[in-house]
Design a protein that fits this description.
This protein has 282 residues and is an alpha/beta fold. 29% of the residues lie in helices and 33% in strands. It contains nine helices and 15 strands.
Length: 282
């Protein structure tokens, strides 16, 4: 069986399980379950702390896993990212009190507090900065107020929490993170079971981003219409019983669907419908 690590809690857990469910895999009903066997799909799921997943996959104990890019890089494990999943996005940045520093290059001799010591240590070294790094498990924004550090490195969404603590963001982002699929570094890329899993997950991503659009249009307007709905390869165009009309079917981005429907209507298209896509293979 393919052995897959899945986050058991936190912001990664529910979206990961929802995506796996959409991909046709069984998921646990009781949050206390640590192992779930999906015999029909020949997969065994292990529900682990998100921070530990890269360690298990990197050691070869598990075949692949779902975790955050930040957690993968912070772990230092022999594991690599093989697919982006498009959820749990975050930005990892430095912050300090106004006037302390303007850029990471000025952190020399200072102390940086963070929950991602491995990631920050490497980033400072890559930038040639000699600074001490203190590991904290959470609420790192209080480290400066309590005198533990002059700088913090943390996940930033809106920046409101940092501003409320009297801090300002410094320099460029350390990392743009999101949920990713990982495997052990050096493992074969053509493993059939892994490839099947990736195809299923990719199918979910596409199904979430696209809808199927159907409409009827006069023959003389077909070229202008299909320019609006080119599809992934090419739209399907079929003649209608009523002479001079054709039916067109094409996949369009969900975010653009309403605008495209308006433009098609202006071209004379009628019976314009959109249908959700539940699964696909490209």
């Amino acid at each position: 069986m393919l052995r897959i690590a899945v986050p058991n809690k936190g912001s990664l857990s529910e979206p990961a399980s929802a995506m796996l469910h959409e991909a046709g895999y069984r998921q646990r009903k009781d949050r206390k379950e640590l192992v779930l066997v999906d015999a029909e799909n020949e997969v065994e799921f292990f529900f682990l702390r998100p921070r530990d997943i890269a360690v298990y996959v990197g050691s070869g104990r598990l075949d692949i896993g779902i975790t955050g890019r930040d957690l993968l890089l912070d772990s230092g494990s022999q594991a690599e990212e093989i697919m982006q999943l498009g959820f749990a996005g975050s930005t990892f940045r430095y912050a300090t009190r106004p006037g302390t520093a303007k850029d990471v290059s000025e952190f020399g001799g200072m102390t940086v507090a963070t929950s991602f010591a491995g990631l920050v240590t490497k980033h400072l070294a890559d930038n040639g900065v000699d600074a001490a790094v203190v590991h904290l498990d959470g609420a790192v924004e209080t480290a400066i107020q309590l005198g533990v550090a002059e700088v913090i490195a943390d996940v930033v969404e809106t920046g409101t929490t940092l501003r409320n603590a009297g801090l300002e963001i410094i320099g460029e982002p350390i990392l743009e993170s999101e949920a990713v699929v990982i495997r052990r570094t050096g493992d074969p890329s053509d493993d059939p079971k892994v490839q099947q899993f990736l195809r299923r997950m990719q199918g979910v991503l596409v199904a979430r981003r696209y809808v199927m659009m159907d409409y009827d249009i006069r023959v003389e307007q077909v070229e202008r219409a299909v320019a609006l709905t080119p599809g992934l390869e090419s739209p399907t165009v079929s003649p209608l019983h009523h002479e001079g009309w054709v039916a067109v079917r094409s996949m369009v981005p969900t975010k653009d669907a309403q605008r495209i429907m308006d433009e098609l209507y202006d071209l004379g298209a009628r019976a314009i419908l959109t249908t959700g896509i539940h699964a696909c293979r490209l």
